[in-house]
Amino acid sequence: MTETSPLSLKKIRHYTFTKHHLVPTYQSASIVEVAGNLIGLHSARLSTPYVTLFSRMVNFQTKELQASSFVSRQLIRVRCMRKTLHTLPLALAPMVHQATLAFRVADCFRIYRQMEVSQSLLQDIQEDIIGVVSKAPSSSQELEEHILTRRGQVNNQIRRKDGKRLIPTVIKQLWEEGTLCYLNRSDHWGSEMRVYGYTPLLYPTIQWQSLSSAEAQEKLVYSHIARFGPVTETDICWWSGLSKEVVRKSIAALRDRLCIVHLPNFEQTCYMTIEDREAFEDFRPPEDHWLCLLAYEDPSLKAYFETRTRYIEPCYYDMLFNQIGEARASIMVDGEVTGIWSWDKEKHRVVWKTFVPFSLKMQNVLDESCSRLEACLNKGVIQYSLF
After folding, report:
1. What was the pLDDT predicted at 161?
2. What angle do helix axes 233-240 and 244-253 make, rounded to 10 degrees?
């Protein structure tokens, strides 16, 4: 693995966020492309994927994400990195699924052991759930009611095993394993009506087991380095949820495709792909200043932990991150976070606060960006049926 001379932090900011489509002249026209270049849209909060796309696409409308996810089904929502919900292109879904599956299903198996549930009972419940969702997508409540109202010995067993705890765990296991898929029947970006569908019927092209766990983990580590590098081992562990042992093993296997780089004021070893390092040399930062609004837990910020000060001055760290390390919705100027914003649900508008005074020109740019985001979110009603 080769080691290169120190890189310009300013240039790295522009280069990385250009790849993430945050620089205005590099915005994308494709939701699938944006989601792919970010290895998924962080979707734990309802608004996050919509604002993420607004910041990276020209004239984005909220209905486009709903259409891509639940109508044409070019995207699928799965829990993966850090056990967090992400919206992913179908091509990436098997990789992130297999790489993170073991630690996502562990909680389910722990609950089964605590409840001393027999394998035959679990199989019976799973088959019943699959039978229901293969006919029509159903909510967790509908599935629980269906199973608990069954007659006979199975029903008695479930009641003795505390069905109100057991059935949701079985649903969760089937979702984590990819048998069930997430769908949202809501007609607005700000609300959720979650139902579960049968993945083989709704996403027939997905082959969850096309990669082994080890292969998927290695590919996931490489994908993170390629899209977010320079990154450290700790950055990768934080973002992926993988153990340090797995990350180190993957980096060792990838050594011929990676190089070691250094950033000013960072003592840690950082990694880039050789291909990315070469492209960085030819990259020329934009001449004009640029500003964008980032979502709560925006993927471009969430990808880092040990090297977060690459995009935020230490004195403003506590203003950007909450007590559990989540990044608040923020304002970025030229690759640096310079303020935060929030959505006023009553007035349906953006409320912002900058860390330092803005020039009149940059404040006008900020006001215009906020107005466009308000217009986007306030047109958030979906005009078609999802089913």
Report:
1. 59
2. 120
Query: Domain residue spans in the chain?
Result: 291-378
Q: Which residues pair with 87 in a beta bridge?
A: 41, 77
Q: Which two tokens stand for residue 306?
A: 């040990």
Which string of DSSP letters, residue by residue, matches 182-209? EEE--SBTT---EEEEEHHHHSTT--TT
Structure tokens at 117: 């549930």
- Residue 249 token pair: 């093993």
Helix (H, G, I), strand (E, B) or coil at 303: coil
pLDDT tens, residue by residue, 288-317:
999 999 999 999 999 999 999 999 999 999
* Residue 71, CB-side half-sphere exposure with 13 Å CA sphere: 13
Put residue 383 in one of left, alpha, beta given phi > 0 → left and psi -120 to 50 → alpha. alpha
Helix intervals (H) in the chain: 9-19, 31-37, 48-54, 62-66, 93-115, 119-133, 140-148, 153-160, 163-176, 199-202, 213-228, 233-240, 244-253, 274-282, 299-302, 317-320, 360-378
Cβ distance 305 to 235 under 8 Å? Answer: yes
pLDDT tens column, 142-189: 998 888 876 445 566 666 656 668 899 999 999 999 999 999 988 888
Q: Kindly report the average pLDDT of the chain as a whole number.
A: 92
Quickly count: other Cβ atoms within 10 Å of residue 245's Cβ.
9
pLDDT, residue 187, reads: 81
Tokens representing residue 11 in the block = 């240039």
- Asked if 32 and 301 count as a contact pair (C-beta separation under 8 A), the reply is no
Q: What is the pTM of this model?
A: 0.93
pLDDT reported for residue 115: 87
* 3-class secondary-structure state, position 243: coil
Measured distance CA(144)–CA(159) in Å, rounded: 12
Q: Are strands 258-261 and 2-3 parallel, antiparallel or unpaired?
A: parallel
Please list, in sequence order, all residues whose beta carbon lies within 8 angstroms of the beta carbon of residue 176, skipping any fewer than 6 positions away. Answer: 79, 101, 104, 105, 108
d(CA 12, CA 90): 29
**Beta partners for residue 2, in sequence order:** 259
Name residues of the chain where pLDDT drops below 50: 151-152, 382-387
Residue 221 has which token pair?
A: 């580590």
Beta bridge partners of 195: 183
What is the DSSP pairing of strand 194-198 with strand 75-79? unpaired
